[in-house]
Specification:
Layout: E1 15-18, E2 21-24, H1 36-53, H2 59-69, E3 72-73, E4 79-81, E5 84-89, E6 98-102, E7 108-112, H3 114-117, E8 123-130, E9 136-143, E10 151-155, E11 161-166, E12 174-176, E13 182-188, E14 203-209, E15 218-221, E16 229-235, E17 241-248, E18 255-260, E19 268-273, H4 275-278, E20 282-286, E21 292-296, E22 304-308, E23 319-322, E24 330-336, E25 345-352, E26 355-362, E27 368-372, E28 379-385, E29 392-399, E30 402-410, E31 415-418, E32 424-425, E33 431-439, E34 445-453, E35 463-467, H5 481-488, E36 492-497, H6 506-510, H7 517-533, E37 542-547, H8 549-560, E38 567-571, H9 590-593, H10 599-608, E39 622-628, H11 637-649, E40 656-661, H12 671-689
Parallel strand pairs: 35-36, 35-37, 37-38, 38-39, 39-40
Antiparallel strand pairs: 1-2, 3-32, 4-5, 5-6, 6-7, 8-9, 9-10, 10-11, 12-13, 13-14, 14-15, 16-17, 17-18, 18-19, 20-21, 21-22, 22-23, 24-25, 25-26, 26-27, 28-29, 29-30, 30-31, 33-34, 34-36
């Protein structure tokens, strides 16, 4: 393979002195996107990517495969409010999903279609919150690369706008009061009230009354001393109580405040959970009698379900309803308390060795009543029930060969059925899936999910290894069109459940965050080495892939062990861990990674920061660094600086490429752009591992009909 001639990138002599440590940053100048030199260099990188990708012989075949395997229809459970069901649907050819309403008679109609608002496909349906009565819905649309995100309130019957827009509500939580005349929501402080360059969140909880201007919305919670806090909102069914969770970024702990709503404009909050004191997450919801149901990892790293008096702040007084299972972390739970039931019930979803189990409990005692049957060994997510009270629950189910499909459990009839009209379309190959355990260098066992063609051929295969390992996010055997396409072409798709994730509960997360983040990286390299040592693949057949914090994981792993890999794909990664706090939402992630402003934590970061550990003269694998031109979460500079550093340093002939995408975001891009990116990732990985979709012998079943 001939060595590429890369666009010239000036290496400056910039060196920061941080707590007495000299930290070179030769590509600091690439952080200024308005600099003509930067724009010229980026344009040259775009031309290089186009020239190289045009030579990928299998790109059209991968594109066709991704199109065949993409799922369509309804992939998340409905929100049911009284007689009205709200569904998000995306059919083949749609760039974005649309919001449907289904009446008591089963008639379906479109309430919000982003394509009618913006035919370019850049505007997407981000979130929606129906009122308890189902006659109004608060809707949030987002334009991919723009920071604003407004809330608009619609009349469900007519589709007309009755209120809004309410500005600066990106990543909000919203809770309606009974009657549909007011709701609490979260919005940011106006930019003009902030100091220049202040990138903190500065969020406030406000009360909005329908018909009032947003300028009149009263701040009921939030202050300047909590600039990086996220807030979650829950109102009791009778509208008499409000609970707020407060979390500094995606921290592993949170506070809980509860207020009686004698005056909704001036709730008086009592702090019932001090997250810093107990060092745990606590997610509350109100029961019918006003007490609280708590899902927590306090004194239970894999989670338990408790009941607490809303006036009692002492965790010692919490009554355990469903105890911790050390081998099955709690994912979520749901109360069913409709009048048709003989007694209120509790549904609990857990993950046992990566696959879901769903159990039914008596709400009063916690006693297990039944293990509910599931369609297979897959993943249950997004439990939802009717509001305000109901006896049916909906959830999404998927596995390696089953795209997300909606099921309905009826607790009165005891039936489990696929929801009518919520089928997905697409063709999936026959995939053999399973979990194996391998040992990390320190002896810790790591779970690996393996997905292979359903055939008996032995020997090494081209392999794509995926990982994440941050924020306590567990990996599961989800359906993933990219994975299905890779396996359908005859390869192995593997997922490494490294420390820093949540597969084994909070202890597993703690073991791979902060000062221990290096363990996530070494776990990933150990998993890759195991795949090679056991003959499942070879170094020349092994590619690795990660998104966002997973992009950090795979770039750090490849920089530490370039000898293990043929190719690396990092989508929207973090790479400069010394300056990550300055870009996107990085300033809220210090609980996970640490802060360069602290000398001890700076040393952690420098130990694995991909950008700072690039070694001149090393023979690096092929790299594809992808990202949105405007990335409001991680920031584009990680991609540009890492690309420049690797192109300068590598002594090998494998390409270092950067793929930039305009008019998209860190996630949830228009469907055609997501599929194009997936096809490019597969073409790149296949090019460097020898996998071809045209040489597959795996049979694809006939497509399922799309919903009518």
């Amino acid at each position: 393979m001939a060595r590429l001639f890369y666009p010239a990138a000036w290496r400056s002599d910039t060196v920061d002195n941080l707590s007495g440590i000299s930290v070179p940053d030769p590509y600091r100048w690439l952080e200024d996107g308005d600099d003509p030199r930067v724009r010229e260099w980026l344009a040259a990188q775009d031309r290089l990517f186009r020239a190289c990708s045009a030579r990928w012989q299998e790109k059209d075949s991968w594109t066709s495969s991704v199109d065949d395997l993409s799922s369509f229809g309804v992939c998340e459970p409905p929100m049911v409010r009284g007689p009205v069901m709200f569904l998000a649907e995306q059919l083949r050819g749609d760039e974005q999903r649309r919001l449907l309403v289904v009446g008591a008679g089963g008639g379906r109609r479109v309430l919000v279609d982003p394509a009618r608002i913006d035919p370019s496909g850049r505007t997407g349906l981000y979130a929606w919150w129906p009122s308890r009565e189902g006659d109004r819905v608060a809707v949030q649309l987002e334009v991919a690369e723009q920071p604003g995100s407004d809330i608009t309130v619609l009349d469900v019957r007519t589709g007309e706008i009755v209120d809004g827009p309410l500005p600066r509500a990106r990543n909000t939580s919203l809770a309606w009061l009974p009657g549909g005349e007011a709701f609490y929501y979260v919005s940011r402080v106006p930019d003009e009230e902030l100091a220049p360059g202040d990138m903190r969140l500065h969020r406030r909880v406000r009360l909005h009354r329908i018909g009032s201007p947003w300028q009149a919305d009263v701040v009921v919670f939030g202050a300047e001393d909590a600039p990086d806090h996220y807030y979650g909102l829950t109102v009791s069914a009778d509208g008499r109580h409000l609970a707020i969770t407060a979390m500094a970024g995606p921290a592993a702990r949170n506070d809980v405040y509860v207020a009686e709503l004698v005056d909704p404009q001036a709730p008086r909050f009592v702090k019932i959970v001090d997250g810093s004191a107990i060092g745990a997450r606590v997610l509350p919801r109100f029961l019918a009698d006003g007490d609280l149901l708590l899902v927590t990892d306090h004194q239970a790293p894999c989670g338990r379900v408790c009941v607490a008096d809303r006036h009692d702040a002492d965790p010692a007084s919490w009554r355990t309803l469903v105890a911790e299972d050390p081998e099955a972390p709690v994912d979520e739970c749901l109360v069913l308390d409709g009048p048709a039931l003989a007694r209120p019930l509790l549904l609990v979803a857990r993950a046992r060795h990566g696959t879901s189990v769903l159990t039914l409990h008596d709400l009063a005692s916690g006693r297990t009543l039944a293990d509910l049957p599931l369609p297979g060994a897959g993943v249950v997510s997004s439990l939802r029930a009717g509001v305000p009270h109901g006896h049916r629950a909906w959830f999404s189910y998927c596995d390696a060969t089953t795209p997300p499909t909606i099921y309905r459990y009826d607790a009165v009839l005891g039936t489990m059925e696929q929801e009518a009209g919520a089928a997905t379309a697409g063709r999936t190959p026959e995939i053999r899936s399973g979990a194996v355990r391998c040992r990390a260098g320190d002896g810790t066992e790591i779970t690996l999910f393996l997905f292979t063609p359903d055939e008996d051929r032995q020997g090494p295969r081209p392999t794509l290894l995926y990982g994440y390992g941050s924020f306590g996010m567990p990996m599961r055997p989800w359906f993933f069109p990219l994975a299905a396409a890779w396996v359908g072409a005859g390869g192995t798709y593997a997922v490494a459940c490294v420390r820093g994730g949540g597969e084994e509960g909070q202890r597993w997360h703690d073991a791979g965050r902060g000062p221990h983040k290096h363990r996530a990286v070494s776990d990933f390299n150990d998993a890759a080495a195991w795949l090679i040592e056991t003959g499942r693949t070879t170094r020349d057949q092994l590619a690795i892939y990660g998104q966002s914090a997973g992009g950090l994981l795979v770039t750090a792993a490849a920089v530490q062990r370039p000898d293990l890999y043929a190719a690396v794909v990092a989508e929207g990664p973090l790479c400069d861990m010394v300056r990550y706090e300055r870009f996107g939402l990085g300033c809220t992630w210090t609980d996970e990674f640490g802060s360069a402003s602290d000398p001890g934590q700076l040393r952690w970061l420098l130990g694995y920061s991909p950008y700072h550990n690039v070694v001149p003269g090393a023979a690096y694998p092929a790299f594809l660094l992808t990202g949105a031109v405007t990335d409001l979460q991680t920031g584009e500079v990680h991609v540009t600086k890492m690309c420049a550093a690797l192109q300068h340093a590598t002594s090998g002939d494998r390409p270092i490429l950067m793929r930039r995408e305009p008019d998209t975001a860190h996630a949830a891009s228009p469907a055609s752009k997501e599929r194009a990116l997936t096809a490019d990732i597969l073409a790149f990985a296949g090019e460097h591992t020898g996998l071809s979709p045209r040489r597959t012998s795996t049979r694809l079943p006939e497509a399922v009909a799309e919903p009518g």
